[in-house]
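A reminder from the course coordinator: this example appears on the midterm review sheet, so study it carefully.

Given structure:
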């Protein structure tokens, strides 16, 4: 198991997660042309950015910055329309172990991929809907995350991509980690799926 990808010893009721997702889609819906996103947390003001800064490599293999810096600390307002859903339980549980920034529901369409990039912080992933062709590649390792209530730590400060080689959308809760309680035994050995 690599340190850049770990399954957590935190589990959620996947049926309750899917019901909360249904409410989020009905009451809020996905936004953005480039990012299929439903924000679970917001800032107090209007400066809510679904994308944020990341780095990639140009054709000369030189690292370049894409987008702008996002103040992850400011994403402390839980979406009022989701307050009475299971997402509040997910957020509260994760917040006991991590200081979180943006928490979003992200959709990756069938037969598509993300750019090869790195982020300024690591991320937590909780798959809601997935398929065997949905993979996360971190460094030189690929991983499939099952939508069974499991939560995963992904060191997205390393170069990575996600691809959806399946025929249905890949839907994940993705939370930015600003700090973690390293004293806790949150991780289990991950042998892959």
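Designed residues:
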């Amino acid at each position: 198991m690599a340190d850049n990808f770990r399954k957590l010893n935190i589990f959620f009721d996947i049926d309750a997660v899917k019901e909360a997702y249904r409410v989020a889609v009905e009451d809020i819906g996905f936004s953005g042309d480039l990012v299929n996103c439903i924000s679970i947390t917001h800032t107090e003001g209007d400066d809510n950015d679904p994308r944020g800064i990341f780095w990639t490599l140009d054709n000369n293999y030189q690292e370049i910055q894409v987008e702008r810096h996002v103040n992850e600390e400011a994403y402390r307002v839980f979406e009022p329309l989701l307050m009475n859903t299971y997402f509040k339980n997910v957020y509260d549980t994760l917040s006991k172990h991590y200081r979180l920034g943006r928490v979003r529901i992200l959709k990756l369409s069938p037969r598509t991929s993300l750019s090869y990039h790195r982020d300024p912080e690591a991320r937590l992933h909780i798959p809601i809907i997935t398929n065997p062709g949905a993979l996360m590649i971190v460094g030189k390792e690929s991983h499939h995350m099952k939508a069974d209530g499991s939560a995963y730590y992904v060191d997205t400060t390393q170069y990575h991509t996600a691809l959806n080689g399946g025929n249905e959308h890949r839907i994940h809760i993705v939370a930015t980690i600003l700090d973690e309680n390293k004293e806790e035994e949150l991780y289990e050995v991950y042998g892959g799926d």
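The first strand starts at residue 5 and ends at 11. The first helix runs from residue 14 to 27.
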